[in-house]
């Protein structure tokens, strides 16, 4: 990560290339682009929605299918407004905001300081980085916003746009979007778009526990949209105002939460590595300032082109949420545990503690895209015809690729299109495929490389004679001749989620 007072041209170029690729090849579009877009809001295109759905389905199955004690729900976006009173969002869901008077740009004060600390760490001064983060954490915990502003000034942090340090006071900015329910304005009720998905799980704790006959420890998983009126929404889809979370709240016996916290930390890190994110680009980052509900918190960070940033949080939330909802709703949120303790006595009724794992689906999408995007120099042809060129390819895990295989007739005649269509029809119920017969086959291969398709199947004249085809592999560009009858198993084995689950 770079000094916030400088513009990291190489990193910016890297991200710009990925953003341009995402738009050109149908992964992510600016929302409402024909009206010049809406800041920090994006739409997923034909290939993007397939990749994102694959990531979500993989997470869902890893949680609910591989863990017998985790079940799922899908809670509503709108919730009773007292939900957010109990959770602390109405009174305390805010970020420290600061403006530069010259550029008129707004920033999160804590992000400016974190980026400065990351700069110190990158230049080898970890001691200074740790001291800065500790000072920031102390000031934010004490809600000393004047001290936060002074720390920014003392660190000589300037606005990246104006280059000046002409800062306003730091003030808190509530991040919740509000709206009204009711047909008549005067009689309407103020409600909020949920800023997180976790509360939908907590208010359904007893419903799920009883209906699914779950016993502590158990988890409730959910994938859903959340909405935050971010002060600074930037870095493409990394920080948006409308985003999707994949969360699991794991309910445990009080006193065991730290054991489960450690276990879920390790489990979740392995999951990201199994997806194809390399270990050297992943790290844990313990929170310097704990949220009001937590007694431990850590982020799993991925090294994006703009530095290490969070893609998942693991938090020990104690019994804060259920206790708060119990107090405000006046409905008990307790579990009767008839297991025996070391003295042979039943644990009885208690409010469970909670360990949370929360993945940003959009951030995971971006991390996957950044890791897969590859520009490499390749050699084509032989002898005097040999030439080198740059190839762009998305090295997505086959299980995540938007398209699993592309089917190409070598030419548009001699019965080859008909045979290729026959193969397409035979396999399309099992895999997402594309059929294409336009342009030279080399150009067709290139298009599929650009969207990450792992296999291209060429139908040629020999196919009509012996029912064999050529399978071209994306990463090594090698070709394998095989019978059509083996295709289903060959592709199915490569693109199965099982290949990822095996690594867990």
Structural commentary:
The protein has 504 residues and is α+β, with helices and mostly antiparallel strands. The protein has 3 domains: 10-76 and 175-369, Bira Bifunctional Protein, Domain 2 (BirA Bifunctional Protein, domain 2), CATH 3.30.930; 94-173, 2-Layer Sandwich (Herpes Virus-1), CATH 3.30.40.230; 396-501, 3-Layer(aba) Sandwich (Rossmann fold), CATH 3.40.50.800. The protein has 17 helices and 23 strands. The strands form 7 sheets. It has a 7-stranded mixed beta sheet with strand order 3-9-10-16-13-12-11. A 5-stranded mixed beta sheet has the order 20-19-21-22-23, with helices on both faces. A 3-stranded antiparallel beta sheet has the order 5-4-6. α13 links the parallel β19 and β20 (433-435). α5 (109-122) runs antiparallel to α6 (126-141), α5 (109-122) packs parallel to α7 (145-154) and α6 (126-141) runs antiparallel to α7 (145-154). The longest helix has 19 residues, at 46-64. It is globular. The two termini are 30 Å apart.
**Order of strands across the biggest sheet?**
3-9-10-16-13-12-11
For the biggest sheet, the summary is: 7 strands, mixed
CATH arch. level architecture of the largest domain: 2-Layer Sandwich
- Report, as a whole number of angstroms, the end-to-end distance: 30 Å
Please bin the fraction of helical residues.
25-40%
What's the pLDDT, averaged over the residues?
Answer: 91
Radius of gyration: 26 Å
What percentage of amino acids are in beta strands? Answer: 25-35%
CATH topology label of the largest domain: BirA Bifunctional Protein, domain 2
CATH first level of the largest domain: Alpha Beta
Unreliable runs, pLDDT <50, ≥5 residues?
1-10
Give me the secondary-structure category: alpha+beta
What's the quaternary structure here?
single chain
What's the CATH superfamily of the largest domain, by name?
Bira Bifunctional Protein, Domain 2
Supply the number of helical segments: 17
The gross shape turns out to be globular
Number of separate strands: 23
User: How many structural domains in the coordinates?
Assistant: 3
